[in-house]
Design a protein that fits this description.
By secondary structure, the protein is an alpha+beta fold. It is built from 11 helices and 5 strands.
């Protein structure tokens, strides 16, 4: 998704510039694709622990204050799964989608599902089980966030997760139940072939492996899914995982 920034300084940037965070699973996707494509890029790292994304300057680049944001020759791209699709189209070697229309449709479904469950499942479990205290906002930080954020879903989420008493246990458990079903689907797919969509490593794998990595850190029971475990072990050996994930976040 392309947006028109109110912070016009970024429109002067040349080449690939990535605003990202070490612990952000969405940032991990984009860093992995840039590594797979062997594309040079300029890092603009934002420390989420220090609330470095909660500033008027950054909200002027990304209207929701989320990471990552890709700026390519002054054009601002947001939404991580759309960014990785853009990068695969713009830099087609090596391809991260097969030529088959049916396979590409399946990849699109995996990416769409990852987007749909990001806040209500993945983010809920990660914040509820791991990072709420780390990313807690004090009164002044919460007021700053509320003055900048216009997205109602994110306002509601962060009012509980980082600005209040924490997410309700029932909400966290419901999110976990949703993820149990999704990773069972992934395990069933991976019982039939090496990667999520057939035998070619693709954007689907890159979209989902950061979820696996961060959910491990939140104590998610992946031992239930042996094929997912083997899939993740294989991806960990790829240079793009080491460069795009472990270089920035050795352990979540």
């Amino acid at each position: 998704m392309i947006v028109e920034p109110t912070n016009k300084s970024v429109t002067e940037l040349k080449g690939l510039h990535l605003y990202h965070a070490d612990i952000s699973n969405c940032s991990m996707r984009v860093r992995m694709v840039l590594s797979e494509k062997k594309q040079p890029w300029t890092s603009h790292h934002l420390d989420l622990r220090k609330k470095e994304a909660v500033t008027p300057e950054y909200f002027g680049i990304h209207p929701k204050g989320l990471v990552p944001t890709l700026v390519h020759d002054g054009v601002v791209h947001i939404e991580s799964n759309e960014i990785i699709e853009y990068l695969d189209e713009r830099f087609p070697d090596p391809p991260l989608q097969p030529s088959s229309p049916a396979a590409r449709e399946r990849i699109a479904e995996w990416l769409q599902t990852a987007t749909e469950v990001h806040v209500k499942a993945v983010k809920t479990v990660i914040y509820g089980r791991k990072v709420s205290k780390m990313l807690h906002k004090n009164e002044a930080e919460d007021a700053q966030y509320r003055s900048l954020q216009r997205d109602s879903e994110l306002l509601a989420f962060h009012s509980q997760a980082t600005g209040g008493g924490g997410l309700p246990e029932a909400k966290i458990r419901a999110a976990e139940e949703m993820l149990y079903g999704l990773f069972q689907n992934a395990d069933d797919e991976l019982a039939q072939h090496r990667w999520l969509v057939g035998d070619q490593f693709s954007l689907a794998d890159i979209s989902w492996i950061p979820l696996h990595f961060t959910l491990i850190g939140a104590g998610f029971p992946f031992e239930r899914y042996p094929h997912v475990v083997a899939w993740a072990d294989a991806i960990r050996e790829r240079p793009s995982f080491q460069e795009g994930v472990l270089r920035w976040c050795a352990k979540f």
